[in-house]
Amino acid sequence: MPASAELEAPPSGAMVPAPYLVRRRRRETSDTWTLTLEPLSGEGIAPAPGQFTMLYVFGVGEVPISVSGTDGGRLVHTVRAVGAVSAAICAAKPGAVLGVRGPFGTVWPLREAAGRDVVVVAGGVGLAPLRTAVRALEREHDDYGSVTLLYGGRTPGDLLFRGELEQWRRRGRLAVEVTVDAARPDWKGRVGVVPKLIEGARFDPASAVALVCGPEIMMTFSVTALLDRGLAPERIHLSMERNMRCAVGHCGHCQLGPTLVCRDGPVYSYERLAELMEVREL
Ligand SMILES: Cc1cc2nc3c(=O)[nH]c(=O)nc-3n(C[C@H](O)[C@H](O)[C@H](O)COP(=O)(O)OP(=O)(O)OC[C@H]3O[C@@H](n4cnc5c(N)ncnc54)[C@H](O)[C@@H]3O)c2cc1C
Ligand code: FES
Fold first, then answer.
1. Strand pairing partners for 77?
2. What is the CATH number of domain 5-104?
3. Positive or negative, the Cα torsion across 235, 50, 247, 10?
4. Of the candidates 76, 64, 73, 71, the residue with the CA atom closest to the CA atom of residue 28
5. Where in the chain is the domain with CATH 2.40.30.10?
6. Which CATH architecture has domain 110-277?
């Protein structure tokens, strides 16, 4: 590649935030909200499952947030308030304007998974980056073998998209298993950590593809359980998080070994990650 091509500036949508209107805001849990954003001008963007945008709250700051849904030109983001910027996004009411850059990053390998069983393993707010993939897997279920969603939260009150989980279960195109770490006696579902569900899940380990997202400790134990079931490292895919600034591979803020999560991730195969680091450091 010529040096001039390497130095080419990223497109302006990658560098300059486009104004988006908050159309809708729905509370998911005590600290997590889903926002529907509409571009103030133009047709908006078309992110693929797994990609993220940089969401900018004017005067507060900018953070990476995965796309949890699309609706025509509208963007859906599901955000947990953990600090100044994410709390300001969660507090943005309909009518507020946020800045959007992107979309950025690698995608869930849905094309590679065609014809195979797919097992989706999500923990907590980790279901948000997987939701567009689960929707595509359900919509195009004839193109896949069995599709299984294993989802865990700390408590029943921490589970995202409860209505949609119920719809997915009722329509029966996916096997849906939900578990919580702890619950009061009136909870009728499973109690236990999500990697435990992998032991009994129905998929063909010789060919299945796994998509995993959640807290790093949950991903570590999930990978171990998937490897124990016989899944090959190259068919296990994880979405990684690192603090970000530029999101276009310039600042080095999101470095993961020799890679940059904004450019080479966030979705990596475990085969690639295992080269980069020890499992315990996932
Ligand atoms: C590719 C990508 C996709 C993401 N998608 C989502 C999403 O869909 N929904 C969502 O709620 N969050 C998502 N995040 C995490 C989100 O970006 C952070 O929660 C946010 O940057 C925190 O910023 P803050 O200013 O609110 O809090 P800060 O004050 O910066 O941080 C508050 C706490 O969160 C920790 N933290 C900050 N940034 C991160 C990070 N990137 N990963 C892990 N811990 C962090 C800090 O160490 C601190 O403990 C994603 C992150 C990445 C990299
Ligand atoms: S955020 Fe700047 S290089 Fe990734």
1. 35
2. 2.40.30.10
3. positive
4. 76
5. 5-104
6. 3-Layer(aba) Sandwich (3.40)
Amino acid letter for position 23: R
Cβ(66) – ligand 1 distance below 6 Å = yes
Q: Which residue ranges does the chain devote to CATH 3.40.50.80?
A: 110-277
Report helix, strand or coil for 80: strand
Q: Hey, what amino acid is at 154? A: R
Ligand nearest to the backbone CA of 244: 2
In whole angstroms, give the CA distance from residue 230 to residue 210. 12
Pick the closest to residue 164 from 25, 47, 28, 22 (CA basis): 28
Looking only at the bridges linking them, the beta strands covering 190-191 and 97-104 are unpaired
Q: How far apart are CA 268 and CA 274, in angstroms?
A: 10
How does DSSP classify residue 45?
Answer: -
Q: What size, in residues, is the chain?
A: 282
Q: Give residue 262 CA to ligand 2 midpoint distance, Å.
A: 6
147-206 residue pLDDT tens: 999 999 999 999 999 999 999 999 999 999 999 999 888 898 999 999 999 999 999 999
Per-residue pLDDT tens over the stretch 212-236 = 999 999 999 999 999 999 999 999 9
Name beta bridge partners: 39.
20
* Mutational pocket test of ligand 2: of 104, 245, 259, the residue with most ligand atoms within 8 Å of the beta carbon: 245
